[in-house]
């Protein structure tokens, strides 16, 4: 699946249906900037709007994913479209979970630095290193908590 190819196909089909980005975005309940990102290949449509998008553009989910129109004999049936949408949903969920894992890893790294800062000390150099590690660990943990909260709130 090539995002730029899919985006160009969305733009082509939108123009063929005589729709502006604004009109398409209103029909789908997304912003026109979102449609623009799809068409430039910067992002892919969310699984929740794939079927309505295909319906508005008069294409199948398979055609959307391939970025080109298929011959009538090659078109997928509804069962295959459901599988495409389910697969896209799972991919987006995994990408969200990966970001959550990065936030957790960042928090664990901050905790490790905090623990190491408490273990060091005793001389001027060790006290300096301990202070630097403490100074880094607290903001890292705060960033991790804020990032995880934002990701959790925004959902997959």
Explain how this protein is built:
This protein has helices at residues 3-16, 21-28, 32-39, 47-57, 61-66, 78-119, 124-154. It is an all-alpha fold and 156 residues long. It has two domains: 3-74, 434 Repressor (Amino-terminal Domain); 95-154. Helix 2 (21-28) packs across helix 3. The two termini are 20 Å apart. The mean pLDDT is 84.
CATH topology name of the largest domain: 434 Repressor (Amino-terminal Domain)
In the CATH scheme, the class of the largest domain would be Mainly Alpha
Q: Outline the biggest β-sheet.
A: none
Average of pLDDT? 84
Strand content is under 5%
For CATH, the homologous superfamily of the largest domain is named as: lambda repressor-like DNA-binding domains
**What's the overall geometry?**
elongated
List the total number of helices. 7
What's the Cα radius of gyration? 23 Å
Q: From the helix content, strand content and strand pairing, which structural class follows?
A: mainly alpha
Low-confidence stretches: none
| Share in helix | over 70%
Give the tally of structural domains: 2
Please provide the ordered H/E string of secondary-structure elements.
HHHHHHH
- Total number of strands: 0
CATH architecture heading of the largest domain: Orthogonal Bundle
Q: In angstroms, what separates the terminal alpha carbons?
A: 20 Å
